[in-house]
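Q: Here's a chain of 257 amino acids. Please give me its 3D structure as tokens.
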Amino acid sequence: MNRKIVALILGLTLLCAALAGCGGQSTLDKIEKNKKVVWGTNAYFMPFEIREGEDVIGVDAEIAAAVAKKLGVELVVEDMEFESLISALESGTVDFVGAGMTITDERKEKADFSTGYWTAVQVVTVAADDESVLTVGDLSSLVIGVQSGTTGDFVAEDLTNNPDTGIMRYNTVIEAMQDLKNGNIDCVIADDLPSQAIVSQTEGLKILDLAPSDEETYAFAVKKGDTELLNVINEVLAEMMESGEIETLVNKYSLGQ
């Protein structure tokens, strides 16, 4: 076969794969065909996702259920480590992600994000009898606990003087808080609502009146180019925000608040 023809065929094949064209189906097509939509999350982030026996409940769980209802399909939950969520989107293991996930420039390179639906801030938790931390600068020499791959992790990287030994990473905020309570780390940097919920149920911890970073916005994420599915998610979010339902759900699931 002529080399130019071979090269042309190869080029078209690669283009089809990249664009999911030439008979391929979109994520929304797949959802409608399979009659199910797969939500990816990390179910240890109160009040947005909480493990309750075999079920996952919380603000994001209610939003995900509303998305499935809007699509007229079954909701399937994939609970995994937070750091794996964007990769799961890219591979098609999950159809959309909702996990109290902050919109960042780095994440936007790998996924498309919905309208923001909640504003959060990072807070610093220490032992209740710890009076040594007075400013954000005091954190630079401490051992900081964070949930791996979260905004708290990124903030700690910017603050610490000891990137190799000054940060301890955990799969969940709960694990980090437990290690703080056990005296193995000096503080935890994490989102405000999960921190408040955990501290309200855990003796010996307190949240400092410090803001180690700027406010951040949570959003749902889809695979790059999944515009149809993203539009459905945005419709659901718009309806729930306009009715005040999301704020109601945050209050409902903020255990101990």
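Q: Can you summarize the key feature?
A: The first helix runs from residue 3 to 19.
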